From TrEMBL:
<dbReference type="InterPro" id="IPR029039">
    <property type="entry name" value="Flavoprotein-like_sf"/>
</dbReference>
<dbReference type="InterPro" id="IPR003680">
    <property type="entry name" value="Flavodoxin_fold"/>
</dbReference>
<protein>
    <submittedName>
        <fullName>NAD(P)H dehydrogenase</fullName>
    </submittedName>
</protein>
<dbReference type="InterPro" id="IPR051545">
    <property type="entry name" value="NAD(P)H_dehydrogenase_qn"/>
</dbReference>
<feature type="domain" description="Flavodoxin-like fold">
    <location>
        <begin position="1"/>
        <end position="182"/>
    </location>
</feature>
<keyword id="KW-0560">Oxidoreductase</keyword>
<dbReference type="Pfam" id="PF02525">
    <property type="entry name" value="Flavodoxin_2"/>
</dbReference>
<comment type="similarity">
    <text>Belongs to the NAD(P)H dehydrogenase (quinone) family.</text>
</comment>
Length: 232
């Protein structure tokens, strides 16, 4: 198995840097080959001015080769750092990640199918706040809702299987004991990354959605918001 580990943090000596070392080592020791894409150190240009470019083609090939995509980043203003957003903007191009036609109907494949179907996608996210604030009743919103644009609107939209985020909270105050636990948690998570259940987003199909791409009244009746688009 082959993984592409995309890392977006300005400081290699940070907690994020240590988690990257632990994660890539865990995959390697489990028999994976790992391609590390360090956006800051590689000097990736995040500005989308013209489509394509040699750097885009290179990274598309790196993504195409991966069975697993890991995106690691600190949560800044409830989103990804700008350099990672720019990487997505430039690399996930039309015809590569989306707007890929269904060979039978000619319609674009999306939401569960698409140019990146068959891959799994895991986010490794650090946040300075406490875990409860990013939980189901937390003031910041549940982490899966906070990252909806990435998990559902990017990963699932392009056909990848999104996995629940691997969230590390209170990242600004990590004791040696806590660090040991974080290392064990991430290692254990990666050992089973290809067998764990994906987030249960609904496929965009006639069974679930009408021609306006709105849920049928019979699907999740009375339920509104993001959770309605999850099975069960």
């Amino acid at each position: 198995m082959h993984a592409l580990w995309v890392w977006a943090h300005p400081h290699a000596s940070s907690l994020n840097g240590r988690l990257r070392e632990i994660g890539t080592t865990a995959l390697t020791e489990a028999g994976w080959s790992v391609d590390e894409l360090d956006l800051y150190r590689e000097g990736f240009d995040p500005l989308l001015v013209e489509v394509g470019g040699a750097d885009v083609r290179r990274d598309q090939e790196r993504l195409r080769a991966a069975d697993l995509l890991v995106m690691q980043f600190p949560l800044w203003w409830y989103s990804t750092p700008a350099i990672l957003k720019g990487w997505i903007d430039r690399v996930f191009e039309s015809g590569f990640a989306f707007d890929v036609p269904d060979p039978e109907t000619g319609k674009p494949l999306k939401y569960g199918t698409g140019g990146l179907a068959g891959k799994r996608a895991l986010t490794v996210v650090t946040a300075g706040d406490r875990s409860a604030t990013l939980g189901p009743r937390g003031i910041s919103g549940d982490i899966e809702d906070v990252l909806w644009p990435l998990l559902h609107g990017t990963f699932w939209y392009t056909g990848m299987d999104p996995l629940r985020p691997h969230l590390v909270t209170e990242a600004n105050d990590v004791s040696p004991e806590t660090m040991a636990r974080l290392e064990a948690d991430l290692t254990g998570r990666l050992e089973n990354v290809m067998s764990e259940q994906r987030i249960g987003y609904r496929h965009m199909c006639d069974e679930h959605y009408d021609h306006t791409i709105k849920l049928h009244d019979s699907v999740a009746p009375g339920e509104v918001g993001l959770s309605a688009h999850r099975e069960g």
